[in-house]
Amino acid sequence: xxxxxxxxxxxxxxxxxxxxxxxxxxxxxxxxxxxxxxxxxxxxxxxxxxxxxxxxxxxxxxxxxxxxxxxxxxxxxxxxxxxxxxxxxxxxxxxxxxxxxxxxxxx
Length: 107
Description:
Elements lengths: L4 E2 L6 E6 L4 H16 L5 E6 L9 E5 L3 H7 L4 E5 L6 H12 L3 E2 L2
Parallel strand pairs: 2-3, 2-4, 4-5
Antiparallel strand pairs: 1-6
């Protein structure tokens, strides 16, 4: 299973996991990139099908319906689950915690 937490200072790569398509999850990825840039964060944010999550992902962001599979695939990553494709509190918390230097914990 996936990691429980990671220090913000160690987060270099965030992967947004999706099913097979790229529609709504690509929109979430682009929103995360905008929020990270606005916060002054230097982190690589990528997009990947859930079954092909790169093993070097520090944090994986997945819709609640995919989070169980993401945790099985991304064994070295902290998995953040979200419900809403726009302005989800879990994604906002991730950006805020990265900005503040807080530990990033599975949710």
